[in-house]
Amino acid sequence: PLERKRFYQNVSISQGEGGFEINLDHRKLKTPQAKLFTVPSEALAIAVATEWDSQKDTIKFYTMHLTTLCNTALDNPTQRNKMQLIRAAVKFLETDTVCYRVEEPAALAELQKNEWDPVVAWAEKRYDVAIGSSTSILGPNIPASTKETFVSHLASYNMWALQGIEYVITQLKSLILSMGLIDRHITVEKAVLLSRLEEEYQIQRWGNVEWAHDYDLCELRARAAAGTLFVHLCSESSTVKHKLLRD
User: Fold this and answer.
1) Domains in the chain, start-ordered, CATH in brackets?
2) How many CB atoms lie within 10 A of CB 195?
3) Are 78 and 159 in contact (CB under 8 A)?
4) E strand or H helix at 54, and its extent?
């Protein structure tokens, strides 16, 4: 269900044998596959608990992106292993948003060059790879060495973080923008704007459906931000100090 009446008063976290658990009153949260909802870091548990605590009279599951990502990591509904997750993420390079360019109209082509080229240049320098761009419908010819470099880089992340990385890539339709976001090179707002560059150009030219554009923009920002936060919290080894909880 997309929504459900709130059935609990208090949300808390506790540490169990497998990690940190979420408690709704005296009930322990479970995944859709009825597994105990256990996350690897205290910081992530606090973030998830905050999602549940912020629900009002109705639980709106579609707003709880961190909870959804945790459920995916725990249940692994597609039954993929680590290398399959990595290969799926790297495959996005072949259709990466920032690598596909137009020749016409000239104004849009110039906008893509000015806005996307610096991010591509950053990625090439950061990972010591060749990426490039193309106006061909077939897209750019990404060298095999570039793909293998990204495979090696992504292999340094754990399975939980990889679920988050793939989620961000799926939202932005771009591995390059996603890595720029996760590496803190660009902000969520910037990454989302760059991923929607052509759409924003058309809106400026022709106008937009007032409420629909704003909703889509906010929703994409929320998903990209949640996915990025999820990656960072799943990669964080240190626990949150109790003083911070009291503050």
Assistant:
1) 4-75 (3.30.2180.10), 82-235 (1.10.3580.10)
2) 21
3) no
4) none
